[in-house]
Structures are given as structure tokens and as C-alpha cells.
């Protein structure tokens, strides 16, 4: 802090520190804390409370009938008192129904149903597979762009990669939706070749298969793997490769001992970004499946918030997802021996 | 000066591979763009019913999409207004901090980039409801800014690492006030990055879906409106939006390359 004040003067340093503090608190830490807090309590909405209320009102109606038929004033007073007492009970229960007491605990996490837990685990596995496949597909691409082409070709390739990268994520998913839809491009070509008849609804339902989400997801996030790898590989001195070759190393060995070790930070960043994006992706599964393929976890989270209106459960789901993603990041950093500073370059 | 480390055969295989990869990237976009000009009322390239521009006209009359576009621009401008100052201040502090405390602060400020987008949306939604602000454009601005500010900060940090600090120190020694030094030396040095960061922030905000869909509540942006329409079926009007995006991106990328390659060579 001292050197900041020395460089910019006290007033300016205070403004700079203040804005940063607001950013940290209002945009990052407190909202996360609020989400965590929300996941740790629930309101006991007991179904039998409304039943009890209904029963009380039934009894009150019966009493009213009795009251109308009773001639004796003492009996009337007795019925009035009974009615007032039942009404008070009903009012108390109604208040409880409207605003049930908060209870703190881990129930939102432990109450996750078997099906939801299965979807959670499956989403994580799918995200890991997307990450692994993207890594395999991207390594040669990054290698060529960074090392194995002249400067001109490298520029052209970079632009060829940046253009799809810059285009809206949603539109990239949409393009695949068009291709795989019932009347989509692939079914259209099959129909044109005479294999299927679209008018008889004989199409192949690609979208009802989980691999459709998979395909679109790799397409959408593959470039988040390419760019970090290109960035690290570009700093590799090509003479190292030449030297290894001159000393008789095979191509495989050069990749294993020279290129991949140098690319490590890039690989780690690429894997972290791809995993994080695919595990938390709502756009791809929501659009590709349209409720017909298997759900991804993000869709369950969305429904907790916007359909079941159970924000506590939804927060618990979101926290679970965040924990897994954080664990993955820490694991990758440990495995590849990179620090946070290397990640965001 | 192509690399000599590969045999001709290996190079051929690599080139074919890259070709296929680029094709994989562009073919879906080409199909999407072509279908925008087909007069068939379902977006298709296999059932071609003749060239038309009618879907462009339909888009021009689509009030909800146009309103979505206006909302998207407003949110993006809001995000720029929040995230550029935040990112700048964060970067200024980090370059002056020691290694230890710097790393902690750095981790906190970079963490939103590594957090799944839906979680940023959810946490902002919950946080602002405490203050009685329901999901909407404002909450979307806040949710998006939390991670876009981090991107801006990284850009500023990279620039500040190349700064020659002796310039500021010399100005101070010569009696300039701190404010004057900041205004006349630091800010002009950072101005190009301010511009880049603003462009990046605009694009990031404009295309964001995963964070926005949770924070937006009953309002909508262009992207969330497109997404909710896709649930009910495809329409060539969406393809027209796609064509416009592809065209703008191509123009921007080519301009960028031309500008960059000219003075260098």
C-alpha cells in the first residue's frame, strides 16, 4: 500500500484502493457468501399445515351451523368462544404456512435425489471427456500454428481460429442444432440420397442422443484449449527441437521430452478453461436437447431457480458444482506444477 | 522459412489435419449463413426454395429482437463503465504490491474468470435480491462485470509490466503533483489498453449467455431472446442474426490483420 501512495499520492491511492475493494466485495466475495448462506438453510414447508388449516375451517363452518340453530343464549356464547378459538389457531397456522421458520443445516446437500446425484456425476464425467477429447484434437493444431509453419501461414491460421472463436457461443450451438435437427442438414442429405423419407417423419433423431450435446460442446469450447497452448508453444526456441533431432531423438521423443514439457502451463490452462466451461455450460445442453435428451446438471440448477422456485436447493446445487470445479483447478495446478500467475497470461 | 523438423510425409498429414479442423470450424457457420437466404420457412440448405432477403425484412420488423439488441448494447455499456475502472485499479494495486500479499489479492481478482458462468449469475441474483433488486438488466451488468473486470485487469497488468517507471519518478522529482503525473503520464500510457479492454468487454458482454440467463429475470437481451425462441423451433430469422454476426466478425478480423501486418513488414 505504501508504494502505491508514494507513486500516486495519498488521495489517488485511496480512490484506487477503494474501487478495488468495492469490486472485491460487491461483485465477488459477498455475492458468493450470499449464495453459500442461501444453500445452508431451508424453510420447513410441512404439507400437513395446510391440511390442518382446512380442517379448522371445516370445524368453524360446522360450529356456525350449530350457532344458527341454537336458541339458548348460554349455548350461543359457548359456540362463539369455540369458534373464536379455532379461528385464532387457523390464523397462527396460516402465518406459519406463509413464512415457515428458517432451519440451518446441510440438508440441501444431502437431500439431493438419486437421479439428480446421477446427473451430477454424469455431467462431471462428460465434462472430463470433453476436456480430454479437446486436448487430443487441439495438440496438433496448436503445434502447427505455433511451431511448424512460417510466419505468414501462422497469421492466416490464427485469424481462421479467431473468427469462429469471436462468434457468439449461442450461434455456434445453433449451427449444430440446424445440422442435427429432425429436418436438419444431415437428415436432409440422407433424404436426398433416398435413405429416409422426411414427409413420413422417418428422420434419425440425433438430438435425442446425448452425443449431440457432446459434439456441439466440443465445437463450442475447443478453441479455449487451442489458444493457451499456442501462447506457450510460441515461446519455445525452435533450436531446441533442431538440437534434439540432430542428437538423434525420434519425433515421438521430441514431443514427449521437449515440446510437451514446455507446453505444460498452456495445457493446464486449456484443460481448466474447457472443463470449467463445459461442466457449467447451460447454453449447449439446454438448446441442443430441448428437454428430450438427458439433462445436464446446469439445467437442474436452472429449474430449481426458475421453475421449482427453490432457491435454497438451487444454491446448494450451484455450490456443489463450484466445489468440483475448484477441486479440478487445484488438481491441475498441482499435477502440472503451475501457479495461478501462469494461468492468466 | 518453414520448419525443417518434419519429413514431407509428416507435414502433409499435419496440413490435411489442420485443413479438416478449419473445415470443422467453418462448415457449420457456412451452413447457418446460407440458410438465411433460403425462402423455405424452416432454416435449411438441403430443401432449397430459391434466394430471398425476406428474413432480413422480418428481422427488421421483429420488435422483441430489436428491443433485445438495444438491451444488449445497454448492458454492454454498463459493463464497460463498471469493469474498466475496476480492472484498472486492480492492476495498479497489483503492480505495486509485494510478492506475498500480491498473490492473495491476485487470486481473488482472477477467480471470477475461473468460475463457471452460471455461478456468477446465481450469486449476483441472490445478492441483489437482498437489496430488493430483482433479476434484470442491472443485475446482469453486475454479474457480467465480476468476471469481465478480471479480463480487463489482466490486459492492464500486461501493459503495466512494460511500463518504464523512471518516467513517473522523474516527473515527481521535477515537482509535478501526483495527480498531474497520473493524468499526463500514467493514463496516456494506458489509453490504448483502455480501448482494447473496452472492446473486449463489449464483445464479452454482448455474447454472454450462461451468466446472463440466470441474472436477467424477466428482461431479455438479444442472446437470451434467441435462446428462448430456439425452444419452440427454428426460424430463418435467427440465421439472419447469425449472418450479421459472421459478417461483422470477418470484417473486424480482416481489418485487424491488415492493420497489424502493414507497419510490421
Any overview of this molecule?
- The complex is a heterodimer of chains A (345) and B (265).
- Chain A has helices at 2-8, 10-39, 47-69, 73-98, 107-110, 114-146, 151-166, 169-180, 185-192, 210-221, 223-233, 238-246, 251-279, 283-289, 297-306, 311-336, 340-343, and strands spanning 41-43, 102-104.
- Chain A folds into 3 domains: 2-41; 48-98; 115-343, MetI-like fold (Orthogonal Bundle).
- Chain A has a two-stranded antiparallel ribbon.
- In chain A, helix 6 crosses helix 11 (223-233).
- The longest helix of chain A is centred in the middle third of the chain and has 33 residues, at 114-146.
- Chain A contains 17 helices and 2 strands.
- Chain B has 265 residues and is mainly alpha-helical.
- Chain B has 2 domains: 1-29; 66-222, MetI-like fold (Orthogonal Bundle).
- Chain B has 11 helices and no strands.
- Chain B has helices at residues 8-35, 54-60, 63-96, 99-110, 117-129, 137-161, 165-173, 178-207, 210-215, 222-230, 236-264.
- In chain B, helix 2 packs across helix 11, helix 3 (63-96) runs parallel beside helix 6 and helix 3 (63-96) packs across helix 10.
- Chain B is globular.
- Chain B starts with 7 loop residues before the first helix and ends with a helix.
- The mean pLDDT of chain B is 88.
- Chains A and B meet through helix 1, helix 2, helix 6, helix 7 and helix 8 of A and helix 1, helix 3, helix 4, helix 5 and helix 6 of B.
Amino acid at each position: 500500500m505504501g508504494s502505491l501512495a508514494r507513486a500516486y499520492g495519498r488521495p489517488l491511492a485511496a480512490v484506487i484502493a477503494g474501487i478495488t475493494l468495492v469490486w472485491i466485495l460487491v461483485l465477488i466475495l459477498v455475492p458468493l457468501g450470499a449464495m453459500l448462506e442461501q444453500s445452508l438453510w431451508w424453510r420447513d414447508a410441512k404439507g400437513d399445515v395446510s391440511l390442518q388449516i382446512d380442517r379448522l375451517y371445516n370445524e368453524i363452518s360446522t360450529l356456525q351451523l350449530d350457532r344458527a340453530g341454537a336458541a339458548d343464549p348460554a349455548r350461543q356464547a359457548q359456540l362463539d368462544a369455540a369458534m373464536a378459538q379455532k379461528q385464532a389457531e387457523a390464523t397462527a397456522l396460516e402465518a406459519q404456512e406463509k413464512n415457515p421458520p428458517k432451519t440451518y443445516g446441510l440438508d440441501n446437500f444431502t437431500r439431493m435425489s438419486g437421479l439428480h446425484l446421477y446427473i451430477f456425476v454424469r455431467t462431471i464425467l462428460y465434462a472430463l471427456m470433453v476436456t480430454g477429447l479437446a486436448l487430443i484434437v487441439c495438440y496438433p493444431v496448436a503445434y502447427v500454428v505455433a511451431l511448424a509453419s512460417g510466419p505468414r501461414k501462422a497469421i492466416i491460421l490464427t485469424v481462421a481460429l479467431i473468427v469462429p472463436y469471436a462468434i457468439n457461443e449461442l450461434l455456434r450451438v445453433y449451427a449444430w442444432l440446424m445440422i442435427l435437427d429432425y429436418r436438419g442438414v444431415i437428415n436432409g442429405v440422407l433424404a436426398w440420397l433416398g435413405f429416409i423419407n422426411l414427409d413420413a417423419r422417418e428422420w434419425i433423431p440425433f438430438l435425442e442422443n446425448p452425443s449431440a450435446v457432446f459434439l456441439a460442446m466440443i465445437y463450442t469450447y475447443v478453441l479455449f484449449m487451442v489458444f493457451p497452448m499456442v501462447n506457450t508453444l510460441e515461446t519455445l526456441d525452435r533450436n531446441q527441437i533442431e538440437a534434439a533431432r540432430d542428437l538423434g531423438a525420434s519425433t515421438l521423443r521430441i514431443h514427449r521430452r521437449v515440446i510437451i514439457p514446455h507446453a505444460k502451463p498452456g495445457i493446464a490452462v486449456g484443460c481448466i478453461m474447457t472443463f470449467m466451461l463445459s461442466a457449467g455450460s447451460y447454453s449447449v445442453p439446454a438448446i441442443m436437447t430441448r428437454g428430450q435428451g438427458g439433462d445436464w446438471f446446469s439445467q437442474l440448477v436452472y429449474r430449481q431457480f426458475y421453475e421449482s422456485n427453490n432457491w435454497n436447493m438451487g444454491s446448494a446445487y450451484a455450490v456443489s458444482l463450484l466445489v468440483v470445479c475448484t477441486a479440478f483447478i487445484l488438481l491441475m495446478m498441482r499435477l502440472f506444477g503451475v501457479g495461478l500467475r501462469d494461468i492468466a497470461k | 522459412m518453414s520448419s525443417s523438423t518434419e519429413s514431407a510425409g509428416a507435414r502433409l498429414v499435419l496440413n490435411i489435419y489442420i485443413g479438416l479442423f478449419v473445415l470443422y470450424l467453418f462448415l457449420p457457420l457456412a451452413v447457418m449463413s446460407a440458410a438465411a437466404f433460403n425462402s423455405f420457412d424452416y432454416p435449411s440448405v438441403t430443401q432449397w426454395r430459391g434466394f430471398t432477403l425476406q428474413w432480413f425484412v422480418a428481422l427488421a420488423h421483429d420488435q422483441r429482437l430489436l428491443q433485445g439488441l438495444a438491451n444488449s448494447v445497454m448492458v454492454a455499456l454498463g459493463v464497460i463503465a463498471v469493469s474498466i475502472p475496476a480492472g484498472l485499479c486492480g492492476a495498479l494495486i497489483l503492480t505495486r504490491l509485494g510478492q506475498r500479499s500480491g498473490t492473495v489479492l491476485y487470486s481473488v481478482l482472477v477467480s471470477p474468470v475461473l468460475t463457471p458462468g452460471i455461478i456468477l449469475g446465481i450469486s449476483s441474483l441472490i445478492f441483489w435480491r437482498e437489496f430488493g433488486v430483482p433479476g434484470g438488466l442491472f443485475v446482469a451488468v453486475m454479474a457480467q462485470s465480476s468476471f469481465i473486470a478480471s479480463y480487463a485487469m489482466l490486459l492492464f497488468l500486461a501493459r503495466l509490466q512494460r511500463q518504464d517507471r523512471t518516467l513517473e519518478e522523474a516527473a515527481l522529482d521535477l515537482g509535478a503533483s501526483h495527480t498531474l503525473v497520473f493524468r499526463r503520464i500514467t493514463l496516456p500510457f494506458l489509453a490504448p489498453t483502455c480501448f482494447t479492454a473496452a472492446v473486449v468487454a463489449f464483445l464479452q458482454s454482448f455474447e454472454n449467455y450462461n451468466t446472463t440467463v440466470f441474472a436477467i429475470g424477466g428482461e431479455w437481451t438479444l442472446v437470451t431472446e434467441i435462446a428462448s425462441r430456439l425452444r419452440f423451433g427454428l426460424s430463418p430469422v435467427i440465421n439472419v442474426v447469425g449472418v450479421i454476426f459472421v459478417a461483422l466478425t470477418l470484417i473486424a478480423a480482416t481489418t485487424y490483420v491488415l492493420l497489424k501486418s502493414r507497419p510490421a513488414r
